[in-house]
Structure formats: structure tokens, C-alpha cells
Amino acid sequence: MTHPVALITGSARRIGAETARHLHRQGFNLLLHYRSSYNEVKQLADTFNRERNHSAVAIAAELADTHAIDALAKQALQPWGRLDVLINNASSYYPTPFGKVTENQWDDLLASNTKAPFFLSQALAPYLRKQRGCIVNIADIHAERPLMEYSPYTIAKAGNAMLTKSLARELAPEVRVNGIAPGVIIWPEDAAELADNDKQHILKQVPLGHVGEAADIAKTVVFFVQDAPYITGQILAVDGGRSIYL
Question: Which pLDDT score is estimated for 200?
Fold first, then answer.
């Protein structure tokens, strides 16, 4: 009961998993949310529980379903009876060329990037208030500057950025709410995978000259959670300076 508790959505891989590792090292107990990546989350939870007994629990939920969000919020309190931190990390990301966007794509991208973080934050707000906790939303540098062929995604992330600012007002003074806007942190995969020449073009726009790492975001999460008691309503770009050129 003495360990603070963090819920991380989309915690199976990449930024979510690395954030979990960093918070666990800081003494947090973890609620590891996943949608379908059971094997990856189980392996992560097993690793944490070997390091510190009963310090990680995996929870499945389809965040596009508000009923599932309510159920997730109730499950989050069961293992340790408290919640100190919510990391809204889960996100759909894939190209949607204008003129060919479907309603299902629109609903999916808005649900994972804006709707789910809002309703999950609303459901968990009473528990976060009790612990004087915090929320960290994972936004995107393209929330301010649109990305070609990704209109619904960038619109959703713009909503995510305003969500951060709105919740910072709604939940003050008990709960701090901040956001992180990643740049190129690990190259995209699957349908969003880039050709080598496209990667080189992007890197020319990064003053620091290289792709970031998931740890860059995870360390920033830890900063907002542990070392920023007088910061709320802010969105910090972690992008190697790329937003200077956008």
C-alpha cells in the first residue's frame, strides 16, 4: 500500500512499455493496459513481479468502448486500492489520404487519441484527486502542424492537446495534467512505415540529427510525475528540435 500506482494505457510495446520500466524502477506499482497484445504485456508484468512481488497487473480493455472504460476504471482500484498517475499513451496511427477517409477510420483515430483519454480521465478523476496525483497525455508535435495524409490523426491529437489544457483547469488544484509531444521517437511500423529516403528527409529537419528513443519520452514522463509539482497545463515537445522547422 506504500507504493504509488500508475495506470499506463497501451503499455505492451514501444513508449508504453519503456515508460512502465522507468516508473517501476522509481518504485511504482503498475496497471498495464492492453487491447490485444496479451503475450507482450504478460511478459512485461512477469518481469516486474519477479523484481518486486505483486507490483504489476495486466488489464485488457477496448478503449473505443465507453462501457469498457468504466470497467477499466473500476478494475484499476482493485489491486492496491489507490491510483496516483494516469498515462494516456494508447494511440492508433496510420495514414488516411484525404478523399478516401472512412467513418470507421475517423471514429477509431478520434476514439483512441481523444475520446478514450477524456472519458478515462473523467472516470478516474476522483481517485487521482484523493492522491493529489497527475495525468500525462501523449500528444504529438503534429497536433499544431498537420501531417499530410494523416488528417484525422492530427485532428485527434489537436484535441488531445486541448484536452490536456482543459483538464488542467478542471482538475486543479488537486491533479496536475500535462502532455508530451513526441517527434520522431522510433520509426513508425506497419501501414505507417516509411521508405529510407523519407526517413532521411525527416532527419534533415531534426537539429539534433538522430531519431529519439522511447526512453526520451519515459524520462519526460518521470519528470512530470515526480519533479514538476508546479507545472500543469503544459505540453512539452520531445523532438530533437524538429518542431522548429515545421
Answer: 84
